[in-house]
TrEMBL record:
The lineage of its organism: Bacteria, Bacillati, Bacillota, Bacilli, Bacillales. Signal peptide: none annotated. The keyword Coiled coil applies. Keywords: Coiled coil. This is Hemerythrin-like domain-containing protein. InterPro entries: Hemerythrin-like (IPR012312). One of its GO terms (cellular component) is plasma membrane.
Amino acid sequence: MEQNSHHCGAAMFGGRGPAKLCEPLARLQLEHGPLREQMNAFAREAAEIGQDGGITDWSGRLAELKRKVDAFVSELDPHSEREEGTLFPLMAKYIGRETGPIAVMEYEHDLAKANLKKFREAVEQLEGAVDAERAKDIASYAIQAHAVLTEHFMKEENVLFPMAENILNEEEKAELGRAVGLA
């Protein structure tokens, strides 16, 4: 009966537990794991910035943190593009884009990206020694991005992806499958 690798069985969504996600949605959700690990690692490091009273110049620690954030962004960007470029438009046909879940998801993407950009730009513009207070201010952008994305991933996993499972038809799931690299 299962002719299409993107075919998804009946979802068990509706208060009875998590929905069984089709392969493309499961792939998007699976991508959250490594992203979450990278994000948690840079957030722990960002939280330590400015804490050691013996350090008088935090520019080196901020530069190291920026390398980790850059690596994270290089993984996050293709993931969010698959969502913004394919998943969100497919869902918007059914639930709209101006208000509701898609509007929230896009806002959170923009907010997280803005915080990551502010952090990266602030580090790039540093000249000379950076004291603890300035270093904390700069690191706070990375911490804010982490907070937004932590909540965002949970919303996608618990609300958006199960909703997509229920509203997208097989053709749309196949289109999403192509977008996430499933042929």
